[in-house]
Design goal:
Layout lengths: L2 H17 L3 H8 L3 H8 L7 H11 L3 H8 L15 H25 L2 E15 L6 E12 L4
Antiparallel strand pairs: 1-2
Helix pairs in contact: 2-3, 4-5
Length: about 150
Amino acid sequence: MNDAKNKLAEKIIAIKRKKKLTWQQIGKKVGMSPIWTTAALLGQMSMLEPQAKKAAKIFGLTADETQTLMDIPYRGSLPTAVPTDPLVYRFYELVSVYGTTWKELIQEEFGDGIMSAIDYEMTMERLPDPKGDRVKIVMHGKFLPYRRY
C-alpha cells in the first residue's frame, strides 16, 4: 500500500546522499522541524502543498512524486513486529522495559487516557559527554482522556 511512498523515500535518500544534505538542512528549507520533515520524506506523514513543493525543488521531483508527498500514508514503517535493526530495537526495548512504568506514571498524573502521537512533538540533540556523547530525545504530546459514553 505504501509502495509509491517507499520508492520515493529511497530516491530521496539517494539524492540527499549525493547532494550531501543533512535532515537538519532539509527541514529548514522545507520550513518544518527536521524530525517531522524526515518522517514525511520517509513516507510516514503527508505534506501540505507548500511543503511538498519546497521538497520537490530540493530533490528535483516530478508532479506525481510531489503528489505522493501529499498523499495520506499507511503508517507503520517497520518490516517486522519486533525490529531487527539494533538502533530501532533499542526503542522497542525501552517500551518493553519501561512501557508499563510510563503508563503508570502518566495515568497517575493525568488520569485514564493516552499521550497523543498526533498532537505531538519531538526533538533530538547530541549531548557531549567525556565518557561518550549521549542522545537526548524529548517527546511531548497532548493528553487525551478516554471518553465515557
